[in-house]
């Protein structure tokens, strides 16, 4: 029974392992996985979260500040009673409490400008996140197409090698029959050995490109990583039929490069407004509530009940010299009972409120220099925006010409393949009847293989460059179809 269970477990593990190895990634799956897991994109997403927090901070500057504090102390020996403000020698406890409220009424509109800047910075972080996604997606798509190119190149070499093996068998039969010389057989065998070497190289290129894509996707299981086998047709050239000015206008509306430069310019202008706000006065309003209590017994001053008055001389009769006596109240200090905690807080509380105005008079040129630096930064971002637009125009022109050139190269390679196929068939027929030698036949076959390989390279080069042009036109990478 245990042996049967163990066998079933081993079989189940084998099936699961086989299913894991059979996982083949489509281009869309690669793009979605990269956008979800790429570190650069995650960092851009964190920058967006930080920008949203900055916007929340800027909004909070419009709200009043409320702070509460409290203290509780024990004093022993000669200490100041916080209730009577008299020094007393005893051990007692005392506490105090306060609430402060502050509100900025005017600061040269800097809080308003900071909130506007925070919103611009949040939008900039969104653009940077979008650009990171597009850059990574384009990089992944290029790596994916590179695998397809290498596999197609491998198929070309393998197909030619199959033909060579058939020709090798045919040549051996003709040599054995004495129709062809031994040198022709050696020539075909040399061609076969060379093709085997190129097959190994092509297989290595496929494996290296697979590993490169897996690394870009942060997938560590290189050995089992593979992409889906499917036919990738050459897309239509509708994009090449659009006027270049239309492509440029569309790109300026949708490309993140220009939008990022525009946002940086707007942020620099907002920084200049914030810097100028320091020239204006600052007006703040404040309110304070405070109270206190003490655990010490309060001291009351009362008439001495046992001797309420003292007889003291108050003057002299000038005519008789008789002393005039009077009464002076005999005041004594006595400790009374402790007052309730909350009654003390109620009796000893107080409030204060008012306005404070700060007028900048002279600050060592710091405000003036800050304004000048902001003006310089505005000029710098204006130049960066102009450069971004020029670079975008240049890149679009280059992408447009590259796509057109790739389309023409692909069409030419199709014609070349057809011509080389006819030349190869002609050489093969002549070789079969002994009208040409193995070297000339191998050269014809080699030229056909080169033409087919070049067709594959031109095909995927054209696909990629056309997709780049579509990106400039505003087509999102997730909507691009291969």
TrEMBL record:
<dbReference type="GO" id="GO:0009279">
    <property type="term" value="C:cell outer membrane"/>
</dbReference>
<keyword id="KW-1134">Transmembrane beta strand</keyword>
<dbReference type="GO" id="GO:0015288">
    <property type="term" value="F:porin activity"/>
</dbReference>
<keyword id="KW-0998">Cell outer membrane</keyword>
<dbReference type="GO" id="GO:1990281">
    <property type="term" value="C:efflux pump complex"/>
</dbReference>
<dbReference type="InterPro" id="IPR003423">
    <property type="entry name" value="OMP_efflux"/>
</dbReference>
<keyword id="KW-0472">Membrane</keyword>
<keyword id="KW-0812">Transmembrane</keyword>
<protein>
    <submittedName>
        <fullName>Transporter</fullName>
    </submittedName>
</protein>
<comment type="similarity">
    <text>Belongs to the outer membrane factor (OMF) (TC 1.B.17) family.</text>
</comment>
<dbReference type="Pfam" id="PF02321">
    <property type="entry name" value="OEP"/>
</dbReference>
<keyword id="KW-0813">Transport</keyword>
<dbReference type="InterPro" id="IPR051906">
    <property type="entry name" value="TolC-like"/>
</dbReference>
<dbReference type="GO" id="GO:0015562">
    <property type="term" value="F:efflux transmembrane transporter activity"/>
</dbReference>
């Amino acid at each position: 029974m245990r042996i049967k269970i163990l066998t079933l477990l081993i079989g189940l593990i084998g099936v699961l392992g086989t299913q894991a190895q059979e996982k083949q990634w489509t281009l869309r799956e690669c793009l979605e996985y990269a956008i979800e897991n790429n570190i650069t994109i995650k960092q851009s997403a964190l920058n967006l979260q930080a920008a949203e927090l900055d916007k929340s901070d800027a909004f909070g500057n419009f709200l009043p500040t409320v702070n509460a504090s409290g203290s509780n102390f024990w004093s022993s020996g000669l200490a100041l009673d916080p209730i009577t403000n008299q020094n007393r020698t005893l051990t007692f406890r005392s506490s105090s409490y306060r609430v402060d409220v502050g509100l900025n009424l005017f600061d040269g509109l800097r809080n308003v400008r900071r909130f506007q800047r925070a919103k611009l910075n949040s939008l900039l972080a969104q653009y940077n996140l979008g650009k990171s996604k597009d850059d990574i997606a384009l990089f992944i798509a290029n790596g994916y197409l590179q695998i397809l190119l290498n596999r197609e190149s491998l198929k070309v070499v393998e197909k030619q090698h199959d033909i060579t093996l058939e020709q090798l068998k045919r040549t051996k039969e003709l040599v054995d029959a004495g129709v062809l010389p031994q040198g022709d057989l050696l020539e075909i065998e040399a061609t076969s050995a060379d093709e085997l070497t190129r097959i190994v190289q092509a297989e290595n290129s496929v494996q290296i490109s697979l590993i490169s894509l897996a690394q870009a996707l942060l997938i560590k299981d290189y050995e089992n990583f593979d992409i889906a086998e499917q036919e990738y047709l050459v897309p239509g050239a509708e994009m090449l039929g659009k006027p270049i000015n239309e492509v440029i206008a569309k790109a300026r509306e949708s490309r993140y490069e220009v939008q990022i430069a525009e946002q940086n310019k707007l942020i620099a202008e907002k920084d200049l407004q914030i810097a100028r706000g320091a020239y204006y006065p600052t007006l703040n309003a404040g309110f304070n509530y405070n109270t206190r209590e003490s655990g010490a017994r309060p001291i009351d001053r009362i008439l001495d009940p046992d001797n309420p008055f003292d007889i003291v001389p108050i003057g002299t009769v000038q005519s008789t010299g008789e002393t005039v006596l009077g009464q002076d109240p005999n005041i004594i200090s006595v400790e009374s009972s402790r007052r309730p905690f909350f009654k003390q807080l109620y009796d000893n509380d107080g409030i204060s409120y008012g306005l404070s105005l700060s007028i900048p008079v002279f600050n060592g040129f710091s405000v003036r220099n800050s304004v000048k630096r902001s003006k310089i930064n505005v000029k710098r971002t204006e130049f960066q925006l102009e450069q971004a637009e020029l670079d975008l125009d240049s890149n679009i022109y280059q992408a447009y010409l590259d796509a057109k050139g790739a389309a023409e190269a692909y069409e030419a390679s199709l014609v070349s393949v057809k011509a080389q196929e006819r030349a190869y068939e002609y050489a093969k027929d002549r070789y079969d009847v002994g009208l040409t030698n193995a070297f000339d036949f191998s050269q014809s076959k080699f030229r056909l293989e080169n033409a087919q390989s070049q067709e594959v390279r031109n095909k995927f080069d054209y696909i990629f460059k056309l997709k780049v042009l579509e990106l400039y036109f505003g087509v999102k990478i997730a909507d691009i179809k291969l």
